[in-house]
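Q: Predict the assembly, please.
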Amino acid sequence: MTRERPGNPVALDPATRAVLADFSCRASEDAGTLQDCPVRNVLDRVGDKWSLLILITLSQRPFRFAALQREVGDISKRMLTQSLRMLERDGLVARQVFPTKPPAVEYSLTALGESALTPVAALVSWAAGAHDQIRDARHLFDAATP
Amino acid sequence: MTRERPGNPVALDPATRAVLADFSCRASEDAGTLQDCPVRNVLDRVGDKWSLLILITLSQRPFRFAALQREVGDISKRMLTQSLRMLERDGLVARQVFPTKPPAVEYSLTALGESALTPVAALVSWAAGAHDQIRDARHLFDAATP
DNA sequence: TCCTGCGGTCTACATCCGAGACTATATTCC
DNA sequence: GGAATATAGTCTCGGATGTAGACCGCAGGA
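A: Predicted assembly structure:
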């Protein structure tokens, strides 16, 4: 029984594969470098569950805090605040305070934030297309494991 | 100062924007539909922190359990097991058991899993490019908030 | 006057996650 | 022969993390 075979036959764009192969911030070298890994750093933000949703919502237009919470739907104020701070820190979202009587705060995407929309849209697009297959796979899996 | 303005002037591919606009599974309608939202369902998997890393690792070649853990580097057995189960359930990863004396288990990407690599690679590519700006933004932000 | 909306913060409670111990079998080393 | 190691996980415990909801000060509307 051979182990770690070359893999199943697939046709994947070599350039795409190369991009992924380049991402070598794994167990290589010492653990310290894991923290500095560019992809990991950024992917941690994406893997925030809420960050992605916020980015997508803000892609339509700027929102004020309460409106943003209503639009996303099921996010707590706490997590909305926290996620927005992180996105602001990373320069993806801009926070602008208007000195009206009850101060109004508007959140919008920066140019960098906008640039993230392209790959995010690719992901969303794939998700929409794959959803049926995933749903079927889940039912199959759940039926097989009582 | 007008509120909820049309947005800052940006040049984003209209098709890209349309994809995101289409994703309207937010607070619209009742909360029940949130659970069935295709994008949310799939994005939850992406937002798993480890799922994405596992997918990227498996894009190189199939791995056995322990080898996969070593390759990813800082994932616990617990989360590796859990994430792999979810990915298997969603039909992105295939689990094959070889009945050797200590059973060998090999994990590999399915066709569906391979198809996810294209948008994931786009994301990784963007992350690599944006990393410098993000790092600078973080330093700026941290310096401004003592 | 009371109530609502604004942008948050704070506090309890619940859930999740990581580290490490533990299983059982087979091979390797001394 | 006996100890050590590797295999693929499972289990448990303590700490981190997330959620729901109360609360705050201020302003406008009924």
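Chain A touches chain B through 88 residues (CB under 8 Å). Chain A has a mean pLDDT of 83.
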